[in-house]
Give the backbone structure.
Amino acid sequence: MAEGPDAPRPAEVADPPYYAVVFVSARNGEDEAGYAATHARMLELVAGIPGYLGVDSARDADGLGITVAYFRDRPAIAAWRRHPEHRAAQRAGRQLWYDAYHMHIARVERAYRHDRAAGPVRDA
Amino acid sequence: MAEGPDAPRPAEVADPPYYAVVFVSARNGEDEAGYAATHARMLELVAGIPGYLGVDSARDADGLGITVAYFRDRPAIAAWRRHPEHRAAQRAGRQLWYDAYHMHIARVERAYRHDRAAGPVRDA
């Protein structure tokens, strides 16, 4: 587990409303190198989409992964879905990497946060 | 990585609209046994809340965790937030287990899924 300044932190997102794209996937365990490279590339690419606000991503040792990408609005999500390199990755995901995935597109109405150093802050 | 019938699967949730509570946390690495026991107990307890629809949870090797709990509506979320045993766990989380957490309460407007066996299904 990482400690100190390189420890992972939840993504910093502006106040609501904004959108969250929750992507829950079950990996099949095949082609780990290809999967990891594409996952890293997608995190890089999505950061260039206008209206992108941040991302959180975790994969459990048992193979279940959750990635939550935050966007200003639905048009920003649509732009990301249509990105040609992302579309190719979506196809590869279905063909090669995932036994199953579910995606939930949701409008964030409220947000809360806690930081040990700062104490609780109720955002919105 | 689990394979076969015990492999993890994304939660099965009814068609939108419904709500997602996205809880993103950075563990501090302390008290792993106490944390794990409480996490398991909370997953058991939330399943008894009227309007609970399911949960997905993953924690990365680097300590970032994402749990997404799905509920029928905001009153169901409020009931879960107010549950006495859950409130005690929230306090313990702030005091003992988390460097930081962010929570996003979001109304799911659309959902998609893919299952390798069944082919893609567009839910809503």
Notes: The CA atoms of residues 42 and 86 of chain A lie 7 Å apart. Chain A has a mean pLDDT of 91.
